[in-house]
Each structure stands twice: as structure tokens, then as C-alpha cells.
UniProtKB/TrEMBL annotation:
Keywords: DNA-binding, Phosphoprotein, Transcription, Transcription regulation, Two-component regulatory system. The keyword Endoplasmic reticulum does not apply. Residues 141-239 bind DNA. It comes from the Bacteria. Residues 18-131 form the Response regulatory domain. SMART domains: REC (SM00448), Trans_reg_C (SM00862). GO terms for molecular function: phosphorelay response regulator activity; transcription cis-regulatory region binding. This is DNA-binding response OmpR family regulator. The modification 4-aspartylphosphate is found at residue 67. GO terms for cellular component: cytosol; protein-DNA complex. Residues 141-239 form the OmpR/PhoB-type domain. Signal peptide: none annotated.
Length: 239
């Protein structure tokens, strides 16, 4: 097949990064693979949930593009199982447009999502965006402390009262953004632009990640004392 012309990877840290594409549709899998390879990625493929889990254990990828609807084990369950193994970034792909379906994927641990049908170029941009955040394209930053938290931006580690937090890529980015700006209120649109790099998108993405963060940093997530909701405006990290 013809290899598409795709913008090269600008960040050397992304060259030869390994991406696992999991999709039971051969056409989607083949086109996605071609575009990602043209952008400089090494691509592995899996056609069902069991194959995906085996591939992750056999050759751990740097990022996974995971279809929601799969034979055998569906994408949600695959995502949950991969999350138990580590923090590998996951982009969930779904043909189901309902908001509940997208939220389900995010709650299972996905860092990002794409709705089918999608542009292969958009897929490449999403993969590059998520990976850049996971490897950090910025100049080294010194660790710092805010309240009970200690953030090491370079190691991408956050501890709360000395205990490390297990965070996905987007959860880390969101908490890091707020820790650097304590006691400031941000709307969901602002957070979507600053943390995800999206100029538009589903605002429930932010809502789900706020909920997941509260489960990891609050003593009682149902009555948050640290990550507060400012009704009608957005969210604020109170420290």
C-alpha cells in the first residue's frame, strides 16, 4: 500500500517509540499502522483483547491505541488489566458516540480517546501529544513541595506525605498543572487547553480525571478538601 506523507516527529525523544495498535478491523489497523510508521514510530498490532495483553507482556509498548469494541475481552477490560500492570499511556478508540461510553473508557484508565471515524493524521497528533507529555519535552525542572505533596517533574513522580501516588499520564499532568498554581480556579475549558492541548473537546474528559484524582489524593473523595469544585466556574487546588 502507499505510505502516507506525515509530518516527521520533531522531538528526538519520540523517535522509535513503540506503539501497539489494537483493533479487530483490518483496514483501520492497517491505515493506523501506516500513518504511525510514516511518523517514525515502531508499530505492533493486535486484533483482540487476549492478543493485546500477550503483546504488552511480551514487548511492552510506550503507548497503546486501543479499540473499545473487541472480540474476546472488550477494550474496557483490557484497559483495566493493563492499568494494573503499569502506567503505559492508552488512547481509547470508540465507535460508540454516547458520552457514557467515553466516560467509561476514561474511568477505566484511558489517557485520551478518539471517536470513529477518525482522521489518521489526528491519530498521529494525539499519539505524539500524549507521548510528549509522558517523556517531557521541556527543560529539566527541580522538584518542589506544595502542602503534603512533593512533585518531581523530571522523574514524573508525585508523593503525598511521603507515599508515591500511582497516576496515569494525564492524571500526573493535571495534578502537576494545579500544584504549580495552588489556590487558583480554572474552568474545564482552560484545563482542557492547558493539560490536554485541545482547543475543543468533550469537557467530561476533565470531569472524569478530576474525579479520578480525588480518589487518589483525598481522604474522602465524596467530600474533597484539597481539590475543590468552584460551582459554576471550575476547580481549585486548596493548599
Amino acid at each position: 500500500m502507499l505510505i502516507p506523507v506525515t509530518a516527521p516527529i520533531e522531538n528526538d525523544d519520540l523517535v522509535d517509540r513503540r506503539v501497539l495498535v489494537v483493533d479487530d478491523d483490518p483496514t483501520v489497523s492497517e491505515v493506523s499502522t501506516a500513518y504511525l510508521q510514516a511518523a517514525g514510530f515502531i508499530v505492533d498490532r493486535a486484533s483482540d483483547g487476549f492478543d493485546a495483553l500477550s503483546s504488552v507482556e511480551r514487548t511492552p509498548p510506550d503507548l497503546i491505541v486501543l479499540d473499545r469494541m473487541l472480540p474476546g475481552i472488550d477494550g474496557i477490560e483490557v484497559c483495566r488489566r493493563i492499568r494494573k500492570l503499569g502506567r503505559t499511556p492508552i488512547i481509547m478508540v470508540t465507535a460508540l458516540g454516547a458520552e457514557d461510553e467515553r466516560i467509561l473508557g476514561l474511568e477505566a484508565g484511558a489517557d485520551d480517546y478518539l471517536a470513529k471515524p477518525f482522521s489518521p493524521r489526528e491519530l498521529v497528533l494525539r499519539v505524539q501529544s500524549v507521548l510528549r507529555r509522558s517523556v517531557s519535552e521541556f527543560m529539566p525542572e527541580s522538584p518542589f513541595e506544595r502542602g503534603p505533596f512533593r512533585l518531581d517533574p523530571n522523574a514524573r513522580i508525585v508523593t503525598r506525605e511521603g507515599e508515591p501516588l500511582t497516576l496515569t499520564v494525564r492524571e500526573f499532568d493535571l495534578l502537576a498543572f494545579l500544584l504549580k498554581r495552588p489556590n487558583q480556579t480554572f474552568g474545564r475549558e482552560e484545563l482542557l487547553r492547558a493539560v490536554w492541548g485541545w482547543t475543543y473537546g468533550d469537557l467530561s474528559t476533565v470531569t472524569v480525571h478530576i474525579r479520578r484524582l480525588r480518589e487518589k489524593i483525598e481522604s474522602d473523595p465524596t467530600h474533597p478538601l484539597i481539590l475543590a469544585t468552584v460551582w459554576g466556574i471550575g476547580y481549585r487546588l486548596d493548599l
